[in-house]
Amino acid sequence: MADVNEGSSAAPTYDSDLLSDQANDSEASSIGELARIAAKDGTLLEQVEICVSEQEKRTGAGRTAAMGMKDVYTVYLVETRVKEQGASGLGEGHTSLWRRYSEFELLRNYLVVTYSFVVVPPLPEKRMTLMWQQLSTVDNFDADFIERRRVGLEGFLQRVGAHLLLCKDTVLHGFLQQEDGWKDTVLATGFQAKLPIGLETQQDSRLKSLNASFRLKKPDRKFEDLKNYASDLQSHITAVLKVRAKLADRLYGIHKIHGNYGRVFSEWSGIEQEMGDGLQSAGHFMDAYKDYIDDYMNEEEQIADQLKEYIYFADSLKSVCRKQEVLQYEMEKAEEMLAAKTLQRDQIQGNTPSKSFSLRGMRSKIFGPESQESRDAQVKLLEEQIEECEQHLKRSTQESVSFMERALAEVERFKKQRTTDLKEIFINYAILQIKISKRGIAVWTNTKECFEKM
After folding, report:
1. Contact 119, 223 (CB under 8 A)
2. Which candidate, 46, 234, 364, 367, has a CA 20 to 30 Å from the CA of 28?
3. Pairing between β-strand 129-130 and β-strand 135-136 as defined by DSSP bridges
4. Where would I find the H helices in 270-292?
5. What DSSP state is assigned to residue 198?
6. How far apart are CA 341 and CA 380, in angstroms?
């Protein structure tokens, strides 16, 4: 990674406050080209290579500038390369730009709100945490952690680019191609106010979601099972990660303690004439056995990151379930309102006896029955309200049914992806353990031969 000083002209900062309002013509044509490519059959990833190739730590003026402090942050180089020949609007068929982690977050938040029925791929951790120990490190600029986060961000973009619906979104295309002004473009969509269920504020959304989960009369069994599955998936993967961490710590300690063997054998070889060469060779093997575990542990951490991704995928599943609960809650409320208005109309018309105390009945006893004209006016008003309730119920029902159909189809797609990914992850983990074991056997076999030659 390259450190960039504040005054360096070769490394412009990527501060959102400095973004221009308009994208230039070349950027606009690039976005249009991606839209044309995405409109083809298949996914964008089939036509375009998407990668996050580099990371870089930068400093610049930020919110802490008033206190004489510099804003230190990391940027990632996002590159796209069109696979087909003769693609116009993308220069040489390749473009690249720098993005901050916060911009990846903004893109994902937009996708979650806009495609509420989709199990949107998660982002890698913003801060270095160990899920199984509930610990966090102080330095979020650790080189290994930044590299792992780069790999995770690349995986996020590739998953989005491989999704049949998400890959066609023009905001995504702008993220990949629009150097300046992209943040203004996505904020201009108003997605932050466009909640999936048509509510007015985020606070209202949280309250409605909480009410819906506890007050649904007839929860949908499929989504209840899905919510339970997401919780079980998180608990099982967390348990696997805890066991893996314990095994990794023990294995790491066993390998590192072999450095003591190496030191003892090397020192011993200096006082033994006949056994000197054998002891020295054995010491070298012990040192090699101690050192190579570092590379294997890095591979294990990458596998652990892939497993942790599915902990966050489970959160995406839960989010889809919450949206379905709110939609069904809105539909049930519309049904209740329609039933109440219909009953009120029937009671005025005398078709249904009033079985409970009401202000209308008390007023009738005190002042006498209402005139026919008054009852007709009330019935007419209720008829209009009933029609409005019926239309609202129809819209709510259609919205709920449509959401459920698309969400269940998306869940089926996710299940196929999950099976493939987890199978590959566990196979790779097993292969890695076999490699470690074979390396240990080879080291001790060579050591045995050294002792036999003494």
Report:
1. no
2. 46
3. antiparallel
4. 276-291
5. -
6. 12
Q: Is the Cβ–Cβ distance between 229 and 317 less than 8 Å?
A: yes
CA 158, CA 104: separation in Å to the nearest integer?
13
Residue appearing with tokens 């044309």 = 36
Distance (Å, whole) CA 232 – CA 310:
12
DSSP string, 187-202: HHTTTTT--TT--S-H
Q: What are the tokens at 435? A: 């490699």
> Can you say how many angstroms the Cα of residue 268 is from the centroid of all Cα atoms in its chain?
55
The gap from C-alpha 441 to its chain's centroid, in whole angstroms, comes to 41
Q: What stretches of 52-142 show up as alpha helix (H) in DSSP?
A: 101-114
Residue type, 174: G
**3-class state of residue 4 by DSSP:** strand
**Residue 10 main-chain phi, psi, to 5 deg:** -80, -10
Residues in a beta bridge with 95 = 80
94-100: strand order across its sheet: 3-4, 48-60, 71-82, 94-100
pLDDT by residue for the chain (454 residues), tens only, comes to 334 333 333 333 333 333 333 334 445 455 666 767 666 667 888 888 999 988 888 887 555 445 555 678 889 999 998 876 544 445 456 889 999 999 999 999 999 999 999 999 999 987 765 443 444 444 566 788 888 899 999 999 999 999 999 999 999 999 998 888 899 888 888 887 765 443 334 445 544 555 555 678 888 899 999 999 999 999 999 999 999 989 988 888 888 888 888 888 888 888 877 787 888 888 888 888 888 888 888 888 889 999 999 999 999 999 999 899 889 888 999 999 999 988 888 887 777 665 554 555 555 555 556 667 877 888 889 889 999 999 999 999 999 999 999 999 999 999 999 999 999 999 999 999 999 888 888 888 887 887 777 7
Strand partners, 91: 94
